[in-house]
Amino acid sequence: MLLPEGVLINGLTGEVSPDTGKYTKRLSELREVFQDRAELDRMVATEGDPVVYEVIEYKKEGSDLFFGTTTMEAGNVGGEYFMTRGHFHQRRDMGEVYYTQSGHGVLLLESRDGETRVVRMEPGVCAFIPPDWAHRSINVGTEKLVFVWVCNVEAGHDYGDILKRGMRKVVVDRDGADVIVDNPRYAA
Ligand code: PA5
Ligand code: NI
């Protein structure tokens, strides 16, 4: 029988206690994600392959739900802010919740038929991600962006489309402000 449990989440560091697993994504693992690959290669070579984000999860065998944190570092690659890979869920009938704890971000969403929506990620904002909307989080601030996500264990990740084509919009730094522009490399 599964037993209830309180899990401590540090909203500034993303630490989850207890956790059941974690992974880190470094810049070199996100080569397809950013536009300026020469700059990415330079950063990997000269800045020690910086961490872009870390995911920590709490998942119990036999449960329908799981949750965890994503902690994103601040930074950009040639003006394009640090971001997650972005994905649809394999299960098209399953959405997700993102609850921002600290930092400043943009949640970029794209429906299957190509509509773009943005939800600002600010502390206290709980974002509803409906089923079948691709979602990518982007740290547009100067500090860590920490958010809690809650999802069905069967949702799964489908990275294929977004990795291949990108999303229709990108979020870039223009004189210190985050601006959403058309993705010049988007391939329909
Ligand atoms: O399930 C989610 O949406 C999150 O846990 C993400 O997986 C996490 O933020 C990392 O993003 P991605 O999986 O797009 O690299
Ligand atoms: Ni998701």
From TrEMBL:
SUPFAM superfamilies: RmlC-like cupins. Keywords: Gluconeogenesis, Glycolysis, Isomerase. Gene3D superfamilies: Jelly Rolls. Its EC number is 5.3.1.9. One of its GO terms (biological process) is glycolytic process. GO terms for molecular function: glucose-6-phosphate isomerase activity. Residues 25-177 form the Glucose-6-phosphate isomerase prokaryote domain. Pathway: Carbohydrate degradation; glycolysis; D-glyceraldehyde 3-phosphate and glycerone phosphate from D-glucose: step 2/4. Transmembrane segments: none annotated. GO terms for cellular component: cytoplasm. It catalyses: alpha-D-glucose 6-phosphate = beta-D-fructose 6-phosphate. InterPro entries: G6P_isomerase_prok (IPR010551), RmlC-like_jellyroll (IPR014710), RmlC_Cupin_sf (IPR011051). This is glucose-6-phosphate isomerase.
